[in-house]
Each structure stands twice: as structure tokens, then as C-alpha cells.
# Entry
Amino acid sequence: MTVLVIVGPTAVGKSALAVAVAQQLIQADTSAEIVSADSMQAYIGMDIGTATPTAAERGGVPHHLLDVWPIEHPLTVVDFQQAARSAIDDISARGALPIVVGGSGLYISAILDDFQFPATNADVRALFEAQLQLRGPEALHAQLAEVDPQAAAAILPTNGRRIVRALEVIEITGEPFIAQLPDPVELFPCVRVGLNIDRVELDERIAARVHQMFDDGFVAEVLALPGLAESQTASRALGYTQVLEYLAGECSLQEAIDTTITITRKFARRQQRWFARDTRITWLDYNEAELADRVLALLGADTRQ
# Structure
């Protein structure tokens, strides 16, 4: 069983490429289905702000792990890992090609590699969660930067949940959080493709996407999600925090838009740095002509070995 993996920063065109590849395979009488590796797209009702592919954008290709959990569910990487692996096994059992698509290096590794998570301690975690509520994520991020700069560089200052987890692991093990991440060992044979893009172009695409999200009704989507503000996980999604702040009167709509663009660009830089370390990825230019054909050629070369 081979798994096709398409990675890269947000707004680079991963989902569209995955659909194009799957459609060509289907036309050639080879079944293919897509597994989203975006945890926020797995929340029910969080579609506009996460750029979840619409029914039309899915192009008739079956998609998995979209709109699965209610926003109240504190989704963990382990939850997602188990659900994604189950989807891959199911797709393969039916003789179809699983295409895993995502921009989170952690989630991609958790799904496809022999990835064991460090132990947890409820008391230690409760201590840092209390500090998170009292001091806020930025203060805890600064604390993390003092003890593990590499981990802090890989985690957004607004992502309180991941900051707490990193501090918990450091407290339990006495070692840096990043050191706990194992060297990758594949559970599935994979063909890994990454999409390269110039930084200026990426920044422009991110800004255009964010403006389109707000034009498409992002604020109305957040208003239609009661309980979002109380969700420790879903409320931390890029853009959703900013819309909640706007709705609470803490900033203007334009400030919410501008901040969403800024933090999304920073997140994209982190994505690129994570994937740059993975030598298993074959990098292609995002706007290369006949891009789907290039991916299919890579896939065919691997499957004939």
C-alpha cells in the first residue's frame, strides 16, 4: 500500500492539486480518496475560516476527516492520528489510493510515521493550564522560549494548548520538548510531494485568501458557532480568535483582518521550516505547468519499484 502525501504552507494550493491528481487517477480507472490532515477542518461548521474545500471544490472525489467533531470536543493529535490512520486503512482495503493533504508537519508525522507521544501528567498539565488562564498564551510562550527556544520557534504564541503541552513535557522529562520528537520512521510507504512558492507570492496569496474569507461570511460563520469562545481548541484556530476579539469589541474589523493576515503569514513560515527538514519530500513549484502530471509521474516511478 502506497500513500501519496501533499504538503506545503497554507494557501499554496495543496487541496486543489490533490483533487486534480485524484480526478486523473479516477479517469484512468484507479480509485483515489483524500484524507485531510488539517485538524481545524475536522470541526463541524468551521469551514470558511479553515478554507475547507466546498462540495464543488472536491470535484466528486471522496474526502475524509472534514466536519467530524463538534467544536466542544477538545481534539488531540492522538484523536486525529487514530482517525486518519483508520481512514487510510479503510481506503487501502477498498483498493483505492489514499492522498493525505495538509500543512501541519506535526499532524503529518503523527499520521504517517511511527510517532509515539511523550507521557502526560494531569497535575502538571493543570498547573500550566491555570497559568495559561491567568497570564495568557503570550506570557507562557515567553516562558517556553527561555527553556526551549527551538520549541517556541515551532509553536505560535497564540496556541496556548500546544504551549502548555510543551511545558508539560519539559517539566516531566527534564529535556527539551523538541528532543522528544523521534526520528521519522514510516508506517506506510509514502510518496511525499511538497509545493514550493516564493515568499512574496505566498504573502499575497494569504492576504487574498483572508480577504475572501471575510467577504464570504467569516464573521457570520463564527456567530453561528455558539460555544466557540469556550472551546480551548477550536477557538485557537487562525482567524477565529481574531473574529471573536472583534465580536467582543476588542478590535475593529479591519484590525481583525490585518492580524489574521499577519499571523497566517508567520504560521506559513513555520510550516516551511518544518517541512524543509524532511529529506523525503520532493519539492515542486506550486504553479508549474502540468503539476498533477508531475505528481503522477513521481507516484508511478515509486509504485513500479
The first helix runs from residue 14 to 27. The chain has two domains: 3-116+182-303, 122-180.
